[in-house]
Amino acid sequence: MTHDIDHIGVIGGGAWGTALAATARRAGRRVTLWAREADVAAAIARERRNPDFLPGVDLPEGITATTALEAVTADADAVLLVTPAQVLRGVCGRLAPTWRAGVPAVVCAKGFETEGGASMGQVVAETLPGAPLAVLSGPTFAAEVARGLPTAVTLACADRTLGEALARALGTATFRPYWSDDVVGVQVGGAIKNVLAIACGIVEGRGLGDNARAALVTRGLAELTRLAVALGARPETLMGLSGLGDLLLTATSLQSRNYSLGAALGQGRDLDAVLGERRSVAEGVHTAAALVEMGARLGVDLPIAGAVHAVLSGRAEVDRAIAGLLSRPFRAEPDAHPLG
Ligand SMILES: NC(=O)C1=CN([C@@H]2O[C@H](COP(=O)(O)OP(=O)(O)OC[C@H]3O[C@@H](n4cnc5c(N)ncnc54)[C@H](O)[C@@H]3O)[C@@H](O)[C@H]2O)C=CC1
Ligand SMILES: O=C(CO)COP(=O)(O)O
């Protein structure tokens, strides 16, 4: 089957939805973006800016912005789903009545549902049954993508023809999608790295040093791979852009909302106070709870995610959580994870 993808719909007017709309427009596509807030849609349409979620970035001409979901579903050839993970189910439920048969849904949110641990792909399968599924994930700070700085992503789709058509529709010289058929692995990497980034931020904020952060990134990659394989992913996917690539980016840069949140916690700040100062989402806060439940259910050891969740839920002070990680038994490397 051939896929003619000219009109891209974007659901979500936050930083990432806006950046992806800019990218698709630069790739020559027609673009319609749905934003929840009327002032965000108006600013994108009239001023080519999104000062609320992507300040200081000029957007390309020609992005249609709307607060009407039907303006996207009426005509889009593919729809990018770019809301926070915890609200995707509700938004897809509202999209379902007007979703046209055969239009692909491209998951761009990173996370698992806190209640029940569903992946975003599962949420789409349940709420938009029959919609061909793709997942776009990788090391992508929205502000850099929106400015057109060089970026590479993984675009996962079980149907190679569709995956490659989406890659052609969205790709430019500076936004380079790599096709993968490992839809599960690509989602798991993008979701877990946010929790690991919080852990690395805590290490930064606590002043524990670069050695400790490198140890956490590496052991975090083992943890991430263990869970991904238990969920059906191929281990090599986690060594690619959507696994190691995104972990490396997010767990080492204060541009990351998850890492900077961790850094604030490491400096002794209160979680609610930090979240109260922000309008933007830090997905790791929600995903940590889902991971703990999934690890217990699947019998997968996730010590770093467990420590982050203990801190976020107020069950452990930062120092106690760190001491818990440091007192784990010495063991062999590589361990029994699937790359070992
Ligand atoms: N910002 C980034 O650099 C990247 C973000 N992502 C992922 O994209 C997803 C969206 O993130 P951002 O755009 O950065 O978020 P953001 O924090 O910049 O914006 C959040 C957006 O979600 C909307 N929203 C909030 N509650 C809603 C609800 N109940 N119904 C509908 N919309 C609602 C807000 O209006 C806003 O448009 C997240 O899963 C994030 O992990 C992925 C790659 C890069
Ligand atoms: O997913 C991201 C980069 O790939 C964005 O990370 P943060 O949500 O931590 O800012």
Automatic annotation (TrEMBL):
It is found in: Cytoplasm. GO terms for cellular component: cytosol. It comes from Roseospira visakhapatnamensis. The gene is gpsA. Substrate binds at residues 110, 257-258. The lineage of its organism: Bacteria, Pseudomonadati, Pseudomonadota, Alphaproteobacteria, Rhodospirillales. NCBIfam families: PRK00094.1-2 (NF000940), PRK00094.1-4 (NF000942). This is Glycerol-3-phosphate dehydrogenase [NAD(P)+]. SUPFAM superfamilies: 6-phosphogluconate dehydrogenase C-terminal domain-like (SSF48179), NAD(P)-binding Rossmann-fold domains (SSF51735). The active site is at 193 (proton acceptor). It comes from the Bacteria.
